[in-house]
Amino acid sequence: MTAPLLEVRGLAKRFGGFVALEGIDLDVTSGERLGLIGPNGSGKSTLVNCVCGTLHNEAGTVRFAGQDLNGLPAHRRTHLGLARSFQLPRPFTSLSVADNLRVPLLYTVRRRSLLISSPAELDERCLDLLRQVGLDGKARRRPSDLTQVEMRKLELARAMAAEPKLLIADEAMAGLSHSEIEDIIALLMRLSAQGITIIMIEHIMRAVMRFSQRLAVLVSGRKVADGRPKDVVNNPDVVRAYLGQ
Amino acid sequence: MRPWKFSLLMLAAGAGVFALALAIRSDYLFFAGYVVLQFIVLATAWNILGGYCGYVNFGTAAFFAIGTYTTVALHKIGTNSGRYLSGTLGELLQPLFPLSVLTLVILSGAVAGVIGLGMGYLTLRLRGVFFAIATLAMAVVLQTLVINWDFVGGSRGAYIIRDESLPVVGFKLGYVQYLFAIMLLLAAVAISVARLIEGSRLGYGFATIRDDEMAAEAAGVPTLRLKLIATTISGALMGMAGAPYPYYIGYVEPAGTFGLQYAVNSIAMPMIGGTTSWAGPLIGAVLLGSMQQIATVTISSAVNLLLVGVLLVVFVVIAPNGIMGLVLDWQHARRKP
């Protein structure tokens, strides 16, 4: 049996007296499409933040590709192949759309001397990535010129530019229309077909059920279910968490 | 344009300005020009941390003073080398003294750079207004140290006696002309460094820190390391700007060297010119610095800070991203279909 790409054991995080995560165990194997769901405040984003290094967990371990991530800053985790998109798009507003992708290319893929100027060959790579998400016509625009769905695509493209082994898409479809959601699902499916392991955090169950091979559910900072999507949505604990007693 | 070509162009422009100033034959031009050039260096240095990375530093005067007092200390050691340079190491160092102004500039830059790095380690986990307050506090602490450091004159100040002129490659050059030339060189170096950073991997990293540090980390940017680089470069350039000052002014004392005008001008100049490009601080420093020099001779030097205030209010209202921001917005609007 191959070792999981991401291995979370006993993860715990508190904010003062509030327990955000407690004893989370989660394995994600290479190439898998995992859906991570849970009601608001269940700890999904906190888990992502702890895995990606934005927050530091108080207990437990996170291993990625066999390496212990505890204590590693977020950028080092990105270098190892762990990329994420944010729940609310956080583009680099002073840079053009293409330059937003140039940053992860320069800092994760083509790491060279800090004073070397951006090589021209990166232009083609940026355009290629933008083409994949349908933003190639807006390469020289600023992010402020983009629509909501374009901003989400830019967010995903920036994560893709880091050439990740594991991509965590945090509510990449929130606030989008039906056709826009289809666009994002198709994009994530294409990335999965390229061999990228994907964790999708989402509230839109239709999208989650279509996309996920496996589903994990968090409720009040604990994992209450983990398994095949059809089984998980019928799990009494999950039904109780979503619909009440 | 490649960075080395740009640097050569800057040096050529500097040589051109110097030749023009020599042709005009006005001592005042060199006196006033030195101050404007000094502010070009300070504004460009401030902009590397404040403009490119978005960390507002109120401690410009402290770094400037580090340069100034490094010069004062080394000048004193040089003029009393028999007294201060004793022992084997002292005898080895004695032939190096008195140090040339250029050497003092380099040494002051190194000292200010190291202190900038240390300041970065202590303060860069703070953001926004807290970082700004920390830099202001650092300036107050350093001023208190200098006031109580008798070796460099303490609160009573220190006199630096220099020659009226000196020979430079066969020419007899007035000392202020010589200092003007050094400050021109420093301005060219500072602008070249800023331009080099802008187009490099470092520049992209700085821009992401300014825009969103969390997203920058997620994109693989080592934000803390880059901020430390920024504080070091910025501090070093500010220290270099302060190094020739004792020779220019002749008498330095803490109240003047840690003066408010350094902190205020080095922030206002990039704000007026624009903080996202090397040209912004240059435009702001030339515009505001020249206006202040003109106001000094036509009205009073007391008007200087008033000028800064009025111009800042005007630019915050009309062009919050400065003159370069107006130009870039215009270019951006033209690109839109």
Q: What class, by secondary structure content of chain B?
A: mainly alpha
In the predicted model, the low-confidence regions of chain A spanning at least 5 consecutive residues are none
What's the order of the H and E elements of chain A? EEEHEEHEHHHEHEHEEHH
| Quaternary status | heterodimer
CATH topology of chain A: Rossmann fold
CATH architecture of chain A: 3-Layer(aba) Sandwich
Alpha-carbon Rg of chain B, integer: 20 Å
Strand content of chain B: under 5%
State the shape of chain A.
Answer: globular
Main sheet record of chain B: 2 strands, antiparallel
Biggest sheet strand order of chain A reads 6-7-8-3-9-10
Element-level helix/strand string of chain B: HHHHHHHEEEHHHHHEHHHHH
Number of helices of chain A: 9
Structure commentary:
Chain A is of the alpha/beta class. Chain A has one domain (6-89, 148-243): Rossmann fold (3-Layer(aba) Sandwich). Chain A contains 9 helices and 10 strands. In chain A, the strands form 2 sheets. Chain A has a 6-stranded mixed beta sheet with strand order 6-7-8-3-9-10, with helices on both faces. In chain A, α3 (97-109) crosses α4 (121-133). The mean pLDDT of chain A is 90. With 337 residues, chain B is mainly alpha-helical. Chain B has one domain. Chain B has 17 helices and 4 strands. In chain B, the strands form 2 sheets. Chain B has a two-stranded antiparallel sheet. In chain B, strands 2-3 form a two-stranded antiparallel sheet. In chain B, β2 (165-168) and β3 (171-174) form a beta hairpin. The longest helix of chain B has 24 residues, at 27-50. The chains are: A alpha/beta (245), B mainly alpha (337). Chains A and B meet through α2, α3 and α5 of A and α9, α10 and α11 of B.
